[in-house]
Amino acid sequence: GENVEQHPSTLSVQEGDSAVIKCTYSDSASNYFPWYKQELGKGPQLIIDIRSNVGEKKDQRIAVTLNKTAKHFSLHITETQPEDSAVYFCAASGSGGGADGLTFGKGTHLIIQP
Amino acid sequence: DAGITQSPRHKVTETGTPVTLRCHQTENHRYMYWYRQDPGHGLRLIHYSYGVKDTDKGEVSDGYSVSRSKTEDFLLTLESATSSQTSVYFCAISDWTSGRGETQYFGPGTRLLVL
Question: Roughly how many angstroms between the first and final C-alpha of chain B, as a whole number?
Fold first, then answer.
């Protein structure tokens, strides 16, 4: 099955700086890669996703890049703000395309220092 | 939370007792999922459903069963709860009839403590 590794487990950055979270996956058949943000006591919320036919996707201060050859994808947050503090999870679809569930990384606790 | 509710939101139970968690959706999505979240493990798939009465196992299905008798409801049952099943349980839904079929939307979670 699919295996997803996520780094770092904790990331502390100064407000206004950029943050980068990296994930690798094992199943070359994976074709869908979402990123979720989870605030304390809440369910994960989708913030951005990318499909394997695209190398990069941006949405305001958030971007995701995908390198299919190396089997890794990254989340980039620019001009970080206090409300960006949360736990972020990457996920991969596996060979089932996601219909049979997603495989998640273990999460990154992002701390924005004022 | 994309029209998803989970009940109860919190539950404390004793080892050996049966427990049923409910996920209810108002989106009429075909696919529903149960995940558990534990520190250091992220989210792991327990079971999923691809239609009424159609279910399959996920990565960590031992000790759990599911049922789906209506499109809107997906039940997760712990037949005999153990302390290792203390966790936060999340339900998710997706709609494979739309162009964004892979996208999963999560409910608010149920926090279960087994003593």
Answer: 29
B106 touches chain A (CB under 8 A): yes
**Distance between A8 CA and the closest CA of chain B, angstroms:** 12
Residue range B49-101, pLDDT digits in tens: 999 999 999 999 999 999 999 999 999 999 999 999 999 999 999 986 655 66
Beta carbon pairs, A and B, within 8 Å: 63
Q: Is B3 on the interface with A (CB under 8 A)?
A: no
Shortest distance, CA A23 to any CA of chain B (angstroms):
13
What are the CB-based long-range contacts (under 8 Å, 24+) for B25-29? B25/B71, B25/B72, B25/B73, B25/B74, B25/B91, B25/B93, B26/B72, B27/B2, B27/B3, B27/B93, B27/B95, B27/B105, B28/B71, B28/B72, B29/B93, B29/B94, B29/B95
Structure confidence by residue, pLDDT tens digits, A26-84? 999 999 999 999 999 999 999 999 998 889 999 999 999 999 999 999 999 999 999 99
CA distance A40 to A89: 13
Chain A, residues 36-65, CB within 8 A of chain B, namely 36, 42-46, 49, 51
In angstroms, what separates the C-alpha of A15 from chain B's closest C-alpha? 26
Burial class (CB in 10 A: 0-12, 13-18, 19+), B93: buried
